[in-house]
Amino acid sequence: MSTSTDLARNTVRQLIEKGVSNFVLSPGSRNAPISIALVEAEAKGLIELHIKLDERGAAFFALGISKATDQYVAVICTSGTAVANYHPAAIEALHANNKLIFITADRPLRLRNTGSNQTTNQVDIFPGVICHDVSAPIEIQLSGGPIQLNLQFDEPLLPNNNSDWLSGIKIAPTSARVPTQEKIEVTGNGLVIIGHDCAGISKEVIREFVSKLELPVIAEDPISFPNAIAHAALFLADEKVREYLKPDYVFIIGRTTLSRSINNLIATIDTQYVIDSRVSKVDTARTATKVFATLPLVTVDTNNPSWVGDWNEAARICGELVGQLNNWSEQSASQTIAKELPDSSALFVGSSRPIRDIEAFAKPRGGIEVFANRGLAGIDGNLSTIFGIANQFENTFAIIGDLTFLHDLSALINLPKAKLTIFLIDNNGGGIFSTLSQAGVVGFEKIFGTPQNQDIAKILSGFSIKNEKVKSLSDLKRSMVRDVNEIKFEILEMPTREENASELKKLYELVSSALRIGFNLA
Description:
With 522 residues, this protein is an alpha/beta fold. It contains 18 helices and 19 strands. It folds into 3 domains: 150 residues, Rossmann fold; 138 residues, Rossmann fold (3-Layer(aba) Sandwich); 178 residues, Thiamin diphosphate (ThDP)-binding fold, Pyr/PP domains (Rossmann fold), CATH 3.40.50. Helix 6 links the parallel strand 8 and strand 9.
């Protein structure tokens, strides 16, 4: 047996025994030993093997499966630039604490720095991701978070025997760790803020945690938390409202990455309790009154009914105004999609404006598994991530922008079989910048607006993908009641980015005025 075949077979066998069942492979020569081993494992029914041509998309596809299953997924490539294409997904997985195994094929050590073809330093190429530079079999440890296995494959790359190397394989049962909980007693008016990534903690566990506290809850992902305060990102944009609703202390679960209004509120709160395990490895400079790696046991000394009532009243006033949205806009579209989604389905929300519109305008509900790439909040690889998630769910939906779509076109090659509807917000460019401080600067359209001027329907048709244009709320609602048994895009043709920003500004002003009057803050 060749040493490269031995290394490949040992690696695959160990991963299978540790419960890894999904492998995403991009074709190449140097990774031939492990490619062949994976085909043999698939033939035995031990794994599911996905082939993706583009390494960047392959890594994000694996990320999607990992998010959907909360299990380790391996993604495998050849040497050289192929490895570098994993970098965006690697740092997303690092900052989101997702379970990915990057298996990077490499030349043997003796060929490094010699000018050998397709050879570069692949060791620790993803800063922060644990890397093992492997020339002979080692004991693989999976302890949470992404890792890299850089496998040195020497010639010959093909096996010279047909041994039954998969016989007697036993998959070890997974055992859930019961974390040790610290205790804390709090008093005064409190608040809970849940970041979109939930610090990697199960949403079910968080829902149980916050229900016992009986405090107002702000969730960046309101679709997953039925008892969250609706539209908080919207009404907290007013400084006087923030001051009126300022709590004595706050529990922050995970990161808050979306709304300036919520982060502005957090900045004014003296006592902050952060719950996030990443502070020990990634967010080491994060500060708080106290940091917890897991959910603590909390005793709330006082619960002020009028305090909770004020938050509910703010949500009610704001909700009445938001409920009157019946014009065709990005906000009304996101609100409608969130409301009409069928239970027991999955939803991926793209970065930039879509995820902020869901946070501000969606009414809290349950019954949906919500996903997003919030580790570093990029728009790259979103389509691939969506397809990975859809591979694991019976019924999947997604909301993304037009630039996000164009950023990941290679994902449209070799599509998975899935019941998937993607709502594509087409405002011909970077709509979020029209709502930020950059709006109106010299050269705005060229460097921020970046109109793409593409016929997205023709692009999709070129890939033989079904699509339909949506131009009104009634069209959108009709599209959501149809049973989709394949991948389909709904192209939501929106008013201009400037019109959307103007309408959004007016709505913020209406909300601010109504709340100041309601709380006598004028």
